[in-house]
Amino acid sequence: MDNKKTTVFLAILLAILIALMFLRAHGISLWSVKSSQNNKLQQAEVENIENSAAEKNTGEFDIVAGSDNTVVSDEIVPPKEEPKPKPVPEEPKPEPAEDKPKPEPAADKPKPAPTADKPKPEPVQKPKAVPQQETPKADLPKPAVQMPKKEKITMPVFKNKSGFEPFFVYSDMGAKENNYKPYGFTGNLQALSINQGYKVNPRFGKTCIKVTYDPSRGKVGWSGLYWTEPANNWGDKGPGSNLTGAERVSFWARGEKGGETISNFLMGGISGKQYEDSDSRAIGPIELSEEWKQYYINLEGADLTNIIGGFCLTITKDKNPDGAVFYLDHIVYE
């Protein structure tokens, strides 16, 4: 009996499979026949149940073949219908571009009617320039005073016949070649002051010497200043320098206002102590101008074996009653 049920069941499945393959080959949707298939299955199950109920009366087992020994109840539960998926609409295929009717060419637009000639605007006349009145020369502002450009000055080169090398008393502030020290004040000591690093309008280099004479600061009517070696040496601090071969002492000088009178510019002359100057030479009196001027002390025939006082100046009250300011630069034996 079981073999017969199995055969019937397999035959039904085979028929279903053949029907599905047939429908698929002819492009028929499965959903359209699903409901009829479900009805057939229900009828088959009802017949199987009726057959099993009839067999119970014969005393045989109530197990349906092919159900894996699952007990079948008397109630028939219809299978739930699965929701049908909505068919996806097919996208319309674009028609070939050649079949589309070509748009007819637009009719020629009517040309605008010619407008009447517009009157040309009259040219704008520029106002005539008003002649400027000449400003009197007296009313014109005076231009700012421009400082004259400092000309490039080269140091003079003196050719000494004996080959004597230049020996500087003063070249520039703090220069290594400087010799002698300006600390030998004489006469009215308070009347003279000296600035060795004055930077305004030097003759050479960056600095010059500024000397200020104020006769009102003392009772003595004259003042002097010696450059000595060593400093403040009056013959009691050792000998001076041997400058044999030098032919002159050269220096530059100018006054603050012009008219300043220097009684003497000299070298040597210190005496009365253990060491004395071997000779002396001087020039003066000299009236200075506002411009730099070069002066010389001639040393021809002078004994220069021992020079303590390398350079000196003297100034008096009677020649400069209101005092004097003057400048010195580039003092050198050559």
Structure report:
The structure is a single chain. The chain is of the alpha+beta class. It has two domains: 1-83, no CATH class; 167-333, Sandwich (Jelly Rolls), CATH 2.60.120.260. Helices cover 15% and strands 23% of the residues. It contains two helices and 13 strands; from the N terminus they run ααβββββββββββββ. The protein has helices at 2-25, 31-56; strands at 167-170, 181-187, 192-198, 208-213, 222-228, 248-255, 261-262, 264-268, 280-283, 286-287, 293-298, 309-316, 324-333. The strands form three sheets. Strands 1, 3, 4, 6, 11 and 13 form a six-stranded antiparallel β-sheet that branches. The radius of gyration is 68 Å and the shape is rod-shaped. Residues 53-77 have low confidence and may be disordered.
Query: CA-to-CA gap between the ends?
Result: 157 Å
Total E-strand runs = 13
**Pattern of helices and strands:** HHEEEEEEEEEEEEE
Mean pLDDT: 78
Share in helix:
10-25%
Instruction: Point out poorly predicted stretches.
Output: 53-77
Radius of gyration equals 68 Å
Determine the CATH topology of the largest domain: Jelly Rolls
Strand content: 15-25%
Please, what is the CATH homologous superfamily of the largest domain? Answer: Galactose-binding domain-like
How many H/I helices?
Answer: 2
| Corresponding CATH architecture of the largest domain | Sandwich
What's the level 1 CATH class of the largest domain? Mainly Beta
Q: Kindly give the count of domains.
A: 2
